[in-house]
Amino acid sequence: MNKSELTKKISDATPLNQKEASSAIDAFIDIVKAELQSGEKVQLVGFGSWEVKARAARTGVNPKTGEKIQIAATKLPKFTPGKALKEIVNS
Fold this sequence. Notes:
By secondary structure, the protein is of the alpha+beta class. It has 2 domains: 1-40; 52-83, no CATH class. It has helices spanning 3-13, 18-37, 83-89; strands spanning 42-44, 48-55, 58-61, 68-71, 74-81. The protein has a 3-stranded antiparallel beta sheet with strand order 1-2-5. The protein has a two-stranded antiparallel sheet with strand order 3-4. A hairpin with a 3-residue loop joins β1 (42-44) and β2 (48-55). α1 (3-13) packs across α2 (18-37). The chain is elongated and about 55 Å long. The chain starts with a helix and ends with a helix.
């Protein structure tokens, strides 16, 4: 499913038209991004949560040359599904 398909389904399931549904999706994405950027966790009970995880610097190997390289530390967004979502997917 892509964004336009999601927008259509939301507009069919709610009183929002497609333009309003698209704006709501955009607002949701922007808010989640801003919260993660500021280091906050976003949690939707029963669905899941997003948080930023730190990955330490490490030594890697270039698969082409076998040369050892340093990989810098970085932060990554991580989604953890909630219990209810896991149960729905596994049923």
